[in-house]
Amino acid sequence: MLAKSHTVSFQGIDVHSVTVEVVINNGLPNFNIVGLADKAVGESRERIRACFHTIGISLPAKRITVNLSPADVPKEGAHFDLPIALSILGALKIFDSVQLEEYTALGELSLDGIINPCVGILPASLHALEYNKGIICPQQSGNEAAWTGIQNIIAAKRLLDLINHFKGDQIIAPPVMPDSVTPYAFSVDMKEVRGQVMARRGLEIAAAGGHNMLMSGPPGAGKSMLAQRFSTLLSPLSPEEALEVSIIHSLSGLLPESGLVTTRPYRDPHHSISTPALVGGGAKAKPGEISLAHRGVLFLDELPEFPRHTLEALRQPLETGEVLIARASNHARFPAKFQLLAAMNPCRCGYLGEVERECSKAPLCGKDYQSKLSGPLLDRFDLFVQMQKIDPKDLVMPADDGEDSTTIRMRVINAIDFQKERGQKYRNADFKSADLLAQLDDDAALNDLLQKAFDKFNLSARGFYRMLKVARTIADLARHEKIVMQDLLEAMQFRRVL
Ligand SMILES: Nc1ncnc2c1ncn2[C@@H]1O[C@H](COP(=O)(O)OP(=O)(O)OP(=O)(O)O)[C@@H](O)[C@H]1O
Ligand SMILES: [Mg+2]
Q1: At 253, phi and psi to the nearest 5?
Q2: What is the pLDDT of residue 330?
Q3: Domain extent for 322
Q4: Both 145 and 220 in a single domain?
Q5: Which ligand is nearest to the CA of 215?
Q6: Amino acid 456: pLDDT
Q7: Ligand 2 center–CA 261 separation, angstroms
Q8: Directed axis angle between helix 485-492 and helix 444-456, to 10°?
Q9: How many A from CA of 220 to the centre of ligand 1?
Q10: CA of 370 to the centre of ligand 1 (A)
Q11: What angle, rounded to 10 degrees, do the helices at 461-477 and 197-209 form?
């Protein structure tokens, strides 16, 4: 007797249909899984055998063959347990297996018959929706599936519940769609940061244009503090972006219980991170930190302390907005369109430039420390802020002197609206170089200034265009149709002078 069910396999964020065929024949008792299955799928046999035993179903002393088709697509993960178990139950005629045709099933079985949560329910539901199928998933993942708008969801707690459902003895109620979650529940606020006017303005520009920013300054100036508050300035995720981000988080098993990521991700890995953990990959081709920061922020604190080869691995994704992980048998693609925010001290002791405190090796120690960062990586930052030790006057000023995050965020959202009004469909950081010159105001003095900036900062072509992109964002914040002199002058203040 042959029975079929459907599931999916993941390669990066790409989802492929997989059919699970089971045939039970006479012959020497055996239980085989074929079709490029990895170790976790191979171990399904033992979980299924034990799970069936618990719920009182014994596997017949026959030859059970499970085929995962197409045979040339690698299958990874424990979510194959459920479709394999369902196909076997169909083949044993415990219920009519034709019902399985309408569903895509995912779930990991535990030995006591419970269906455990597994990664990737959101992309699998989208895939099922595309193929006009319903989804069978673990009970806890019901919300996640429901967000896609898929109608036919069976979110079951136990395998026995599913058997009763398909036998018609019991109906599993569809999951209740959660109310939308409230965004902007931040526990920190820009108001708490005193002084550091330049860095605050830099973050505002970075948030409005999607620019990469590097802050350098002495210990205790407030770099990490500012970075932690950057998320509070960002515009909300659009529904399409929320879905993109949630798919990646779903594949990593990091989705919140409500089922969808609604605020821009903020990832701040420690500098001891390995290259695969940062860019993705490893044995299971998991999304790395840069993909988890997709449509959000990747903050690298103490930038020069990261291993050089790890930082260099960021260069290509920073340009292309995605990462392609080559593996022996296939390729995994993950989106990685993130904003890079970084902080560093100017030298190892941290006080370079402060005459009373800098160490005896200054200024050589500064050059040595900064040389840990390659030119091409530095070239990818649009905004550089050289922070100073905080002035004691700023620290004791009344707490209500600084602007709060909501006020700044309103300006950021206003600037993004203005970009859309100008007919622009991308962030300023993604502006095509060729189109940038057309954004300049027709003014001879402006052209003259541009020429001087080119010479003064010894800019690369990329650096030159990046300065113009920043000027475009400053112009958007002021609602200037074209980049005017004052926009360019302000953008020049954010160039690197190291
Ligand atoms: N501008 C500021 N306004 C208010 N508090 C500040 C400011 N700068 C620093 N502080 C206080 O000092 C603490 C340390 O600041 P923070 O960790 O941001 O420094 P840092 O610049 O990252 O230093 P390091 O280079 O050592 O990492 C903060 O938690 C905060 O209490
Ligand atoms: Mg710090």
Answers
A1: 70, 30
A2: 73
A3: 190-424
A4: no
A5: 1
A6: 79
A7: 27
A8: 10
A9: 4
A10: 21
A11: 90
346 within ligand 1 shell (Cβ under 6 A): no
CATH of the domain at 113: 3.30.230.10
223 alpha carbon, closest ligand = 1
User: How far is the centre of ligand 1, averaged over its atoms, from the C-alpha of 311 (Å)?
Assistant: 24
For 88, 173, 309, the CA distances from 134, given in Å and listed in that order, are 20, 14, 45
Three-state SS at 394: helix
- Domain total for the chain? 3
28-64 pLDDT, tens digit each: 999 999 988 888 788 899 999 999 999 999 899 999 9
User: What per-residue confidence (pLDDT) applies to 497?
Assistant: 60
Dihedral angle sign, alpha carbons of residues 42, 46, 52, 55: negative
CATH number of the domain at 345, please: 3.40.50.300
Does any ligand 1 atom lie closer than 6 A to the CB of residue 449? Answer: no
Q: Which residues of the chain have pLDDT under 50?
A: none
Alpha helices in 229-322 (DSSP H): 239-251, 275-279, 289-292, 308-312, 315-320
Q: Whose CA is nearest to atom 13 of ligand 1?
A: 220
**Whether 133 and 212 share a structural domain:** no
225 CB under 6 A from ligand 1?
yes
What's the confidence (pLDDT) of residue 474?
A: 97
